């Protein structure tokens, strides 16, 4: 078996909290439109709008804000007051300055692994927002490279691990999304390590693969270094 | 004098039309709010909102759309109808699928230069939107690398030209923005070639430098290859 030289990390909900802030904003959105729709209906219409708009906006908070505005207009038949839209815009902007809370075991895991491996941050979302969060996290120096991408497909990983490492065959991707982090990295020929987060956006859900040797599920990042040690053996 | 090995190109309004679509959308925005404000007042309030929001949204169409919405709410004291906001959202989304019209001399200039130089596309804006435009332009294969960045400072150019070429000292940046393309590339130690476009966003304006040997202004990209030939001599 080839030796692992390169480790890719997802950012949102792998290194720091993210979905938490989307849920808070969605709860606020739901309150703002409480006179017009039940929370469940609103949530399902918003998710529809988000999925439909991915092809236009890509991933990230600005697209999410525009999808909230669109949903507010749709669900009220255009009757939503301008002030309410203003509050939605403000809620979106607040998300763009939310604090960056790194998750447990992240700092010490990256600090230890950067001594022995090439570390690459591979994340999607708004370019500007991801750069801000990386800067505020204080984790930037642990990474040899940062790739902010518009989508995460097998070819994304093939390209990133060829550019910054020794190809996907000697690389592992670590993240909380089976759909975006784990499965496409394995399809590209790499290892895929799944670290579930209690909050995960519906879009990112997928089935865990069955008997796939390069797939591992761990509970927290504390298990990552022992896993990598075992792979050496 | 060191030899030029690497050429960076800006994208919007250097390789293809861009500001044109912003102006069309702004005219549409102005019509939608004609009952509330004069076009000049609206334009100036929108520009204020855009500049203020750069720190939150960065550059690009999604941020521009959110700034239009915010301006519509402000200028009507929150009275703008939801339907009108819906039209603004739709106008922003249309921009994200506008056709990519490459400018004169672009194709043959890139085709010729890629044989002798390392070509790097360096652009800001929405990641997803810039990738779409590059794909639709058919120019992607002429570039050795693409950098979609959140801002263009001297250190942006120092980093990009070190990564993809032989450092800024042996690199030239070509673009229609003095503020973002030309001046910071010269400050980083490179050549800066200014190709003005008849439409330029207010934010990108700056004074032309006086007696700076590495600065050149050309009228169209047709003059770029002769300029590069002269530099060799």
TrEMBL record, chains A, B:
Q: Name one GO molecular function term.
A: hydrolase activity
What keywords tag this UniProt record? Hydrolase
Query: CDD domains under this entry?
Result: HAD-like
Identify the domain of life.
Bacteria
- What is the protein's name according to its record? Hydrolase, haloacid delahogenase-like family
